[in-house]
Amino acid sequence: MLALEIEGLTVRRGVKRVVDDVSMSLKPGTVTALLGPNGAGKSSLVLALAGALPLEAGSVQIGGLRLSGLGTEAVRGAGVAAVPEGHRVLSGLSVDDNLRTAGHAHSRIELERALDEIYSIFGELAERKNQRAGSMSGGQQQMLALGQALICRPKFVLADEMSLGLAPLIVKRLMGVVTRLAREGTGILLIEQFTAVALSLADHAIVMSRGRFAYSGEPRRLISEPDILHKAYLA
Fold first, then answer.
1. Which among 45, 71, 198, 215 is least surrounded, fewest beta carbons within 10 Å?
2. Pairing of strands 57-62, 65-66
3. Which class for 173: exposed (0-12), middle (13-18), buried (19 or more C-beta within 10 A)?
4. Which of 102, 109, 170 is nearest to 141 (CA)?
5. Contact 191, 159 (CB under 8 A)
């Protein structure tokens, strides 16, 4: 399976360059932890990779397929699904309708199979198929947000702060799903506020500061040399 290749990516929001000439390779079946302080550019990077923010420069591709300049639907169709920060769901729709809406590109038979897969991963959602999504707990909504990404059977998942505001038990549950996805061959880019959790799962770690990569390498080095991460937060 081909990697998601990012080369010289630059993103501007207003007058500020929020992502500044970054390059990386997200490999199938691996977890890459993206760490750094608020405002470092992590979420903007995810939105740009997902096709939700325009690029000022650089390229994104899988093999020979160029994703740069494509919209969110085309990027999802190419196998890259984002889980934005804040467990975004269609609060007025049922759990089942949320998933069906996210999986609209499937044929009817494919959609039913994909739904069965999501409900097998998240038994909590299977029990609440007909419940209005906005009436569920934050943790359940985050499971649904992840399910919405997974229903398109992506090659790569970009997960932004899935654990934000959630109880430790729910965080453990979600990270278990991340581990399972990587084991089954999905490439994961994981932005996570709990650095110890992220580093325990990661095969590769990146520290971002002021729009650039301050470190890219082994997760264990960030554990043994915490000053690398501390400097990024103080920059």
1. 71
2. antiparallel
3. middle
4. 170
5. yes
Q: What is the DSSP letter of 30?
A: -
Relative orientation angle of helices 108-121 and 95-102, to the nearest 10 degrees: 130
Distances from the Cα of 58 to the Cα of 24, 61, 80, 191, 214, angstroms: 11, 10, 17, 21, 19
What number of residues does the chain have?
235
Residue type, 149: A
8 vs 27: CA distance, rounded Å: 18
Residue 206, token pair as written in the block: 């990146």
pLDDT in tens, 20-57: 999 999 999 999 999 999 999 999 999 999 999 999 99
Q: If we measure between CA atoms, which residue out of 196, 148, 205 comes closest to residue 171?
A: 196
Distance separating alpha carbons of residues 171 and 194, to the nearest angstrom: 10
- As beta bridge partners, residue 189 has 32, 158
DSSP string, 123-169: HHHHTTTTSBGGGS-HHHHHHHHHHHHHTT--SEEEEE-TTTT--HH
0.70 surpassed by pTM:
yes
Residues 6 or more apart whose CB falls under 8 angstroms from that of 192 comprise 33, 35, 161, 162, 163, 198
Between CA 19 and CA 112, with CA 175 as vertex, the angle to 5 degrees is 95
Q: What digits encode the pLDDT tens for the residues 125-182?
A: 999 999 999 999 999 999 999 999 999 999 999 999 888 888 888 888 899 999 999 9
Structure tokens of 69?
Answer: 């300049």
Instruction: Report the C-alpha gap between 219 and 143 in whole angstroms.
Output: 26
Distance CA 102, CA 82 (A): 12
Separation of alpha carbons 84 and 142, rounded Å: 10
